[in-house]
Amino acid sequence: MESVRKAKSRLQNYPILLGICGLEASAYGKCVAEMLGEVKRDQCQPEFELFKKCIVANAKKLGTKM
Predict the structure, then answer these.
(1) In angstroms, rounded to a whole number, what is the distance separating the alpha carbons of residues 52 and 21?
(2) What does the pLDDT profile of the chain (66 residues) look like in tens digits?
């Protein structure tokens, strides 16, 4: 059950990380929304990479992993 506790702990950090990376999340969301359900693989890759980089960097600062 230790793994469940750790997973719950990590999930509690997601809203914090999304708040910190709001600009990157917004840019990625806008890119996806522009496709109106016609998203193709790697179409928004640059925006996603910036968002992912922000999440990972700030997760490390919080002492958690993704």
Answers:
(1) 9
(2) 888 888 888 888 888 899 999 999 999 999 988 887 777 888 899 999 999 999 999 999 988 877
Residue 66, both tokens: 């993704």
Tokens of 47: 């925006």
Which H/E stretch holds residue 45?
helix 45-62
Give 20's contacts (C-beta < 8 A, 6+ positions apart).
54, 58
Cβ atoms 28, 48 nearer than 8 A: yes
| Residue found under tokens 């002492």 | 63
How many structural domains compose the chain? Answer: 1
> Is the pTM higher than 0.85?
no
Domain range holding 15? Answer: 2-62
